Amino acid sequence: MKTIKIKLLIFLALIALVSISCNNDDDTPSQQPQTIASIAKANPNLSSLVAALEKAGLTATLNSSGSYTVFAPTNTAFSAFLSAKGYANLDAVPVAALNEILLNHVLSTKVKSTEITTGYVKTLAKGGASATNTISMYIEKGTAVDINGGKTNGGGTVTTADIEASNGVIHIVDGVIGLPTIVNHAIANKNFTTLVAALTYNPASGFAGILSGTASSPFTVFAPTNAAFTSFLTETGFSGLAAIPANVLETTLKYHVVAGANVQSALTNGQVVSTFAAQNFTIGLTGGAKITDASGRVSNIVATDVQCSNGIIHAIDKVLLPKF
């Protein structure tokens, strides 16, 4: 009889244990990741982004299956953007423009903060320069992650990274990332600081303003790197930008620009390119893409197809010299 009582007590204890286990399972259901759109909707600091997505008809996209990276501007970022652009509120932004601005915050692949490297990536946005080539985004990873040179250059900085979603990842940023112009992209990349200084050295030329706008656009810019400018100064004997006569500097800069064309990297051997300086140079493809300038000097094209809203940039390793 004593044995039966012991077995009954053990049986009852097992039932109680199973019951507790089941109750615990009910109290703590497994958390499934939500979509990017759902996470944004639950974050009060992203309510402006949610409203913008709904107005542009993009909520369904970020609710769908996929693998996206979204740089999500805060409400403060949207307020600053609207004020800077002269919009009274979000409703005042044209839907088509809002759509492209929002798509400029989205990558088609999932990129976590540990996978971010300094360089160019492609967003889903399209500018006025090309109907097919999507806008480039420049990411610089240092002590912080800056997008297109930070918010002072129409970009932003990541303030909160790696918010996991079922269809990708969210990085919160402190600025609305506008569609970058050629000048925005040149400023963002520290390899072009001398080029930016040259473009802005003589404000009277208005050259920086031209490459920031849409008149005569789209532009194709063959952009010399800082090292290219250093070699140029050594080669020509000028002590610096200040020593270059204004007309020489302006003509040289214009010689790096093609107006009225968004020329992507599908170049042809022997192609003759007409420039904004009313002088030509020639493309060569033997041993890699090269440019032979009017002075017979050869420059290598070292990076291609940085798509801007008003044109495209290709980086070169030597300053091109026109005839004077």
UniProtKB/TrEMBL annotation:
Q: Domain named FAS1: which ranges?
A: 33-177, 179-320
| Keywords noted in UniProt | Signal
**In which organism is this protein found?**
Flavobacterium circumlabens
Q: Which PANTHER family match?
A: FI19380P1, PERIOSTIN-RELATED
Q: Note the superkingdom of the native organism.
A: Bacteria
The record's Pfam families line, in alphabetical order, gives: Fasciclin
Q: Where is the signal peptide?
A: 1-24
The protein's matches in InterPro entries, at most eight in alphabetical order, are given as: Adhesion/Biosynth-related, FAS1_dom_sf, FAS1_domain
Keyword Signal part of the UniProt annotation: yes
Report the protein name in the record: Fasciclin domain-containing protein
